[in-house]
């Protein structure tokens, strides 16, 4: 277990999420700086503290007039996240952090070091309203959307963790961001896209990441997928399909009652055509629920109708069971049979590496255990 890391933010206790520098577009930061009575060029200096130096305490902005720092901190750098706990596993290469927001809501982020990259899984909502029965977050319900700053602050916090050596063997900044934590990202579209623009904006106005290294996951909100297609950003789209037929998907992914499998896959196919980015089909393997060979055959048939295999990749996910739930991971023999079936049909498929089972690693488990404590 690593030592407790210093707080990135200490949360205020009431009211709406306070407006923060991380909520603002570059031009809005200039306007806010001028309103404080500072010249425009100070906005550039402030952003360099945030995105280059990972510094959010205005008292440490020593290149700004001392007399203005307190007002700057109060008006544009309020506290957002309060670190509740950090759990480490996989010899320190996986770090899961539970954060408390100003209103007591909880969210999670997971930092993972791999041999050639460091990935952060972030949350877009406190809770989730999609109600998937196998998911701890979905069963907890939706508390509220996160603000753009609350989303972006998770990335800032992860880069701070890397800078402090909290993840042994990791160096530099994040390589990848995946919106696969708590919440449905496309149900909080504006805040998610605002944070993504900050992630890809070059220094000094953002983190300067590649859009190709950012993955947005969705259970299949078709109008929002279409909207995302028109954004002109080469993001990776991941669709949490989990079943190839409407009968089963209606049960395990309730949003399917609104947008059916064919509508969701069609929207994903259009995204791939427009962006030239391969779509990931996420498929959580659930014992005796969706892991039969005949469903693998049907999945291949559904995907093949859209065109060449180059547009899609199936990512099988061993279910990280929620304590007390009837939903559990597939048997290894059934996993292999499912993979072999897709392989025979020529469908690109991988089985995701599992991490964090001993630290409540599945989405929402740590928050749920904290709420029940």
Entry keywords:
373 residues, alpha/beta, DNA polymerase, domain 1, TIM Barrel, 2 domains, ten-stranded mixed beta sheet, two-stranded antiparallel ribbon, 35% helix, elongated, disordered N terminus, metal-binding, Probable dual-specificity RNA methyltransferase RlmN, tRNA processing
Topology:
Elements: H1 26-35, H2 41-52, H3 66-76, E1 82-89, E2 94-100, E3 106-114, E4 117-121, E5 125-127, H4 136-140, E6 142-145, H5 148-163, E7 176-179, H6 189-200, E8 214-218, H7 222-229, E9 236-240, H8 246-252, H9 261-275, E10 279-285, H10 293-304, E11 312-318, H11 332-344, E12 349-351, H12 365-372
Parallel strand pairs: 4-7, 7-8, 8-9, 9-10, 10-11, 11-12
Antiparallel strand pairs: 1-2, 2-3, 3-4, 5-6
Helix pairs in contact: 1-2, 5-6, 7-9, 10-11
Question: CATH homologous superfamily of the largest domain, by name?
Answer: Aldolase class I
CATH C-level of the largest domain: Alpha Beta
Largest sheet: 10 strands, mixed
Radius of gyration over C-alpha positions, nearest whole angstrom: 21 Å
Going across the biggest sheet, name each strand in turn: 1-2-3-4-7-8-9-10-11-12
Number of domains: 2
**Total number of beta strands:** 12
Using the alpha-carbon principal axes, give the shape. elongated
